[in-house]
Amino acid sequence: MSNGRDSYSISAWQRYPDALHDDQTLIDTVLAVHTALLSHALAHDPLLNLTLPIEQRALRRIEDWRLLLLLTPWMLSRLLFPDHPPSTHYLPTGVQLNALMQITLY
Question: Which residue in 13, 16, 46, 72 has its CB near the most CB atoms, within 10 A?
Fold first, then answer.
């Protein structure tokens, strides 16, 4: 039986389109995707806090990564965008995975 992590493969990383190398284009695209999720797949979820907006709260570059902090009515998340597929289990300095595979900044 797999715990979900056994199937994790670094080769699963995919590059984003060249157009998303621009920070504002990346932000606009992420916001549009999450807005579409809210409008369609999550439209009738009674557990959502609809008083919260979908907004980018931070964007920063850490080494060869961009880290985007996104607030939505259903989560606050950190999205990692590598400039190129990372080798082995590499994460930017100051970012580590805890036992639950959640990202922690320190």
Answer: 72
The answer to whether residues 68 and 30 touch, using CB atoms and an 8 Å cutoff, is yes
Closest CA to 35 of 71, 81, 78, 79: 71
pTM: 0.69
The beta strand positions in 1-106, using DSSP E, are: 55-62, 65-72, 75-82, 95-97, 103-105
Neighbours of 81 (CB within 10 A): 17
What element of type H or E holds 22? none
pLDDT tens-digit series, residues 23-78: 999 999 999 999 998 888 888 888 888 788 899 999 999 888 899 999 999 888 99
